[in-house]
Amino acid sequence: MPPSHLLRHVFETCATYLDAKHRLATTPMALPAFFILAGTRPGEGCVIERTEDAAIIREMPAAIANHWVGLPQGGRPRGHNSDERHRRMEDAVNNESAEWLAAPVLNRDTRIIATINLSQSQMMLQGWEASGPATAELRLDLASGPEFTLN
Question: Which residue, 17, 36, 44, 89, has fewest beta-carbon neighbours within 10 Å?
Answer without folding.
Answer: 36
